[in-house]
Write a structure and sequence with these properties.
Blueprint: H1 2-94, H2 101-128, H3 131-136, H4 138-152, E1 156-161, H5 170-191, E2 195-203, E3 206-213, H6 220-225, H7 227-238, E4 242-247, E5 253-259
Helix pairs in contact: 1-2, 1-7, 4-5, 5-7
């Protein structure tokens, strides 16, 4: 009789246990769904923040480039013009027969300083806003930089580029130009390298830049906190690219930049 009562109670309890199990499973599923949605929302927020930061970086670099252009124009058109006029007057004074003999040397020195200043202004304005890049495109500009470096710095640079680089948008060409210039300058100043290899390939709509030298490499501190490396990273992000930098196992420094889904003009 007691066994029958226990069996009867168990029969009544089974539906209740089933309901409790279903409720518990439902709560668990709801919690998992909530956690999943929370995770997705967090990812979306991080993506929005990341995109916003990238857009701010692009805007900041664009403002810098606009300011570079303005300064370059002011230097070339205003200060350069004033110094050119001053040089003309100095040349005219040197040709005067009534100038005392002891003043001729001083006039010549002043004229030479003026000519040096004119050359410096021209060089600085071209660095601020590279006219060669605007006039001849990325490929010819890089070839000119490589030729100049090979002739003057005791270093050998090998450049291997696709001819299709001329179809890149201006913002990408300018970004790659700045990055290559920063990389070359860092190697020449700090790496004690003898050779540099630069390869820029355009495969469909993906661009890859590979840079390597045979110098002493770079320290972990310089890689994380170096101003040159930060500039390169910022430039890469501004054109939608990713860049990895470090030391080769065999020695030397490398940088690999990838720009996917590039717009060809």
């Amino acid at each position: 009789m007691e066994g029958t009562t226990q069996l009867s109670n168990l029969v009544y309890l089974l539906p209740l246990l089933a309901i409790i199990f279903i409720v518990a499973a439902g709560v668990l599923m709801l919690n998992l769904h909530f956690q999943k949605n929370l995770f997705h929302q967090k990812l979306m927020q991080e993506e929005i923040i990341s995109n916003h930061q990238k857009e701010l970086l692009r805007s900041s670099i664009q403002v810098q480039e606009d300011e570079r252009k303005r300064i370059a124009v002011d230097l070339h058109d205003e200060l350069g013009a004033v110094l050119s006029i001053a040089r003309m007057h100095l040349v005219a004074l040197e040709q005067q027969t009534r100038i005392p003999e002891e003043c001729i040397g001083s006039l010549k020195d002043i004229r030479e300083l003026t000519e040096t200043s004119i050359s410096s202004i021209r060089r600085i304005s071209h660095e601020l806003m590279p006219q060669n890049l605007q006039m001849f495109g990325l490929l010819e500009t890089l070839q000119h930089i490589v030729s100049t470096a090979n002739n003057s710095n005791g270093i050998n640079i090998r450049l291997n580029c696709d001819d299709k680089l001329e179809s890149l948008p201006w913002s990408v060409s300018l970004g790659l130009y700045r990055i290559c210039l920063e990389l070359i300058n860092n190697t020449i100043k700090h790496a004690q390298a003898k050779h540099i290899n630069i390869s820029i390939r355009l495969d469909g709509r993906q661009l890859t830049l590979f840079y390597v030298d045979d110098g002493i490499g770079i320290t972990e501190k310089e890689l994380k906190n170096g101003l040159g490396q930060k500039n390169i990273q910022a430039r890469a992000i501004s054109i939608g690219a990713t860049v990895n930098m470090g030391n080769n196992e065999t020695g030397g420094f490398y940088a690999m930049l990838k720009l996917p889904d590039i717009t060809i003009i």
